[in-house]
């Protein structure tokens, strides 16, 4: 039977129902609107909103799929990493539902869910093969990860300061754009020239594949300083947005080239996370992959940002691998939500004696 999955680790409240082969039967995402005035996600508001939204969202998703709760084979939820209040709400809801239905509960690592999204049916013809290089670029993460199998992840490099999405959001804020800033900045950048304003390329050509964005953010602040409280000329703001986006793309392309040097066995380059929704960045990554004779895959935009389809899919992958290993079906009712949950800890699920 199908899996029902819940996502509540940040400010998206989401529910999805997937068939055992990963086909999405229904999915809904509510992007909470109570945070914009604060210029960032307020954890307490997010947790309360998840609590208010979830019951009706789950019912509506079931109705979309024309299923009853009794049709469900198991329940899954993101249990970390993320904002603990929201994680507690989603996990408790999912565990309660599983208990009431007498079906298993599968705990999902939110970052692993982003990492495995490219393997959803229909994204890469024949399914994304292991091993692949994953660029995870979101509001909270910026990492190059060698994905060697379900549960087997090796971090090759990551940001030494801000996450990529954080940089987009902060620069958008400086430009007076709404929040979340990424999509607004991309839109404004379409009216600007990417080479109009000289900006630094932090860590370009440096060894390894670490990232840094704070210098870029500082450079933008310096370009804006002469204007003080004055409104920015529209063309200047657009040029700055385009130049920033170009600098990010240059840096990311360089870092990915280094990461691919570190992982010659990679069969595919995959981008995931909210920033992977950025069209110029996707085009650039595709170009890097093509030059190296590799395939490039990025999930459709709505599967890049937070959603529950990826949570259901990660649960199905866990389920399948446990079965392959001759382990009992996963049932993580005693696993607590956790604000931190390193990917390196995900292999132990498949060691004998684990549930
Ligand atoms: P995490 O998954 O790391 O816990 P998160 O849930 O905030 O963090 P996502 O929902 O995956 O991350 O992505 C949101 C981030 O992606 C925000 O920082 C947002 O500005 C950025 N983003 C979304 N669309 C775009 C875009 N088109 N261009 C650039 N950035 C974007
Ligand atoms: Mg989000
Ligand atoms: Fe996310």
UniProtKB/TrEMBL annotation:
Keywords in alphabetical order: Acyltransferase, Cytoplasm, Iron, Metal-binding, Transferase, tRNA processing
Q: What is its EC number?
A: 2.3.1.234
Q: Which residues are listed for Fe cation binding in this entry? A: 110, 114, 306
Q: Which CDD domains would you find in this protein's record?
A: ASKHA_NBD_TsaD_bac
Report the InterPro entries cross-referenced here.
Answer: ATPase_NBD, Gcp-like_dom, KAE1/TsaD, Peptidase_M22_CS, TsaD
Q: Could you tell me what the cofactor note in this record states?
A: Binds 1 Fe(2+) ion per subunit.
PROSITE patterns of this UniProt entry?
GLYCOPROTEASE
Q: What is this protein called?
A: tRNA N6-adenosine threonylcarbamoyltransferase
Source species: Acetobacter lambici
Name the gene.
tsaD
């Amino acid at each position: 039977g199908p899996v029902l999955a819940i996502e509540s680790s940040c400010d998206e409240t989401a529910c999805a129902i997937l068939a055992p082969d990963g086909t999405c039967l229904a999915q809904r995402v509510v992007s909470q609107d109570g945070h914009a005035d604060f210029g960032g996600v307020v954890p307490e508001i997010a947790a309360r909103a998840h609590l208010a939204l979830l019951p009706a969202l789950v019912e509506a998703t079931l109705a979309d799929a024309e299923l009853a709760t009794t049709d469900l084979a198991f329940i899954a939820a993101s249990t970390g990493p993320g904002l603990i209040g929201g994680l507690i709400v989603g996990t408790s809801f999912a565990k309660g539902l599983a208990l009431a239905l007498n079906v298993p509960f599968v705990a999902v690592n939110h970052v692993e869910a982003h990492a495995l999204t490219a393997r959803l049916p229909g994204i890469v013809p024949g399914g994304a093969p292991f091993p692949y290089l994953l660029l995870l670029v979101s509001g909270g993460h910026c990492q190059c990860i060698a994905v060697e199998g379900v549960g087997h992840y090796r971090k090759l490099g990551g940001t030494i300061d801000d996450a990529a999405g954080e940089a987009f959001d902060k620069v958008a804020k400086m430009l007076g754009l709404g929040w979340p800033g990424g999509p607004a900045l991309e839109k404004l950048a379409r009216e600007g020239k990417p080479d109009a304003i000289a900006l630094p390329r932090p860590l370009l050509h440096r060894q390894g594949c670490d990232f840094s964005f704070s210098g870029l953010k500082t450079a933008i602040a310096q370009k804006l300083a002469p204007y003080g409280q004055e409104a920015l000329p529209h063309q200047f703001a657009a040029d700055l947005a385009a130049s920033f986006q170009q600098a990010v793309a240059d840096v990311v392309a360089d870092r990915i080239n280094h990461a691919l040097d570190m992982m010659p066995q990679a069969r595919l380059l995959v981008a995931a996370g909210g920033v992977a929704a950025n069209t110029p960045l996707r085009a650039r990554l595709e170009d890097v992959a093509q030059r190296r004779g590799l395939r490039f895959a990025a999930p459709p935009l709505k599967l890049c940002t937070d959603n529950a389809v990826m949570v259901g899919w990660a649960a199905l992958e866990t389920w399948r691998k446990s079965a392959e290993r001759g382990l009992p079906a996963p049932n993580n009712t005693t696993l607590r939500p956790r604000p931190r949950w390193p990917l390196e800890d995900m292999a132990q699920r498949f060691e004998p004696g684990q549930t």
